[in-house]
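USER: Please consider what follows.
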Amino acid sequence: MTRKRLGDLLREEAGEPLTPVSSPPPAPASRSRRRKPAASPAAQQNEIAAPAPAPAPSAHDLPVVDPATTIAQLETALAQSHRHEQELISQQQDLQQQLAACQARAQSLQSDLTEMRSQLQEQQTLVTQLQTEHHQIQALQSQLEEARQVILQLSAPPAIESPPPPKPLRAPEPTPQRPPIAVALMTARQEAIQAATRGTHTEELNAEASKTSPAKPYRFERLGWTPLSNHLIQPKPYEAKLSDADLGWVD
């Protein structure tokens, strides 16, 4: 079919009919022309002025083309077109593959975007929870600080009060001096005790004591003391020694 079509194309280019048809030879121009009436001089001038139409090219005027060369050129062009078509098909397949890969990549990115949105939502929720917990911790810390201050105030030792001012020193009261009669009585008693211990001159001492004038009584009521009797105490033989209890009032 390809060769036949190429041959037809060559014939069309050469101006030959597709099917050979026998046609009679053209009649001579003299016979086909009819005599026309004589034209006027103006019409003749117009015919002379109008250019004659160019004759149509005939089959003999066309260039001679080699059919084999033309067929080879057409076959080469056809092969190039087939090759170009294959290239276009392969490019189309590549583009389809790239499109499929891009679509898969877009789906993957879409899924990643959805996952990232969910993670972002979770992170926002977590941040809100952390902020709430932070506020609670701050409130607890303030309460603990207040409790610590209260505990410190309660456990602190009481303030040391300043000692009261010392009392003014009072001068010691003077010791009351014994009256001379008391000193004399003490001396006499000590002498009597010494005489009793020795056991001598007892009677002489009694006689001398009786001869002496009685001492004038001292007003012991003024000093709050009890007055003594006017006579001396006579020691007894069995009371040669006195105990510490008897002598204690001397101190």
Notes: The CA atoms of residues 119 and 234 lie 129 Å apart.
